[in-house]
Amino acid sequence: MIGALFGDIAGSVYEFGNTTDYNFELLPDGSQPTDDSCMTLAVANALLDTHGKDDDTIRSAVVTYMQAIGRRYPDAGYGGRFYEWLFSDNPQPYNSYGNGSGMRVSSVGWLFSSMEETLHVAKLTAEVTHNHPEGIKGAQAIAAAIYLARTGAGKDEIKTFIAETFSYDLDRTLAEIKPNYRFYVDCMRSVPEAIIAFLEGNDYEDVIRKAISLGGDSDTIACMAGGIAEAYFGMPDEFREDVLSRLDIPLRRIVFEFEDKLAVDRFIYWEAAH
Question: 251: burial class by Cβ within 10 Å (0-12, 13-18, 19+)?
Fold first, then answer.
């Protein structure tokens, strides 16, 4: 999950000042967590607190934590409709197909032990706001790619599964996409591009650079691509420290709780296997 946070932070200064230069400055002054990081951590917190619970409990916790963290950081860069939802006394889904569902879902790809459960919980985290089929599909695609990457699937397997399951065209190249690419915030025109950035990348940093230099909604594309890249390649320790240094104590605590949960789960799996 922290790979998604780094992608968001790295892309934050280029979201409204796009660069197409692969060799852009990584983490210049002003690089900071945006709404993508806040909502990624809110979803992670909700899932940590409700692991193994029923669907209604999970959905309710996602709403509670997203509103709580969103209200604590009201200037993180939320879209207009989502901002209204954050401060609503009766928050309801609003049929969005924006990429907000995909940028906040990375923890789902790590926390569950089957593809079926991963897709199911990804849907739960999306539909509290993004209940349009394309909004749900975007979240499921990113979570599925992370699940496959962390469980040892190769890039060809990941590409085939995502393309066949979600009908995304992943045969395009970034070089083909880039000349006509614009600032798109819908899942249909940013989730596949994030996945393609991962598929073309040679290591974690390469994925981040490819995602951001595509242009468009840079922080969100890098957030989604970075979440997959971390699961597949791992990420440099210094990048993890860069993220932690830019989070305040409450947000940093969620990262630590999430990492502790994964460490415990891995130990239990190891014991069962041996």
Answer: buried
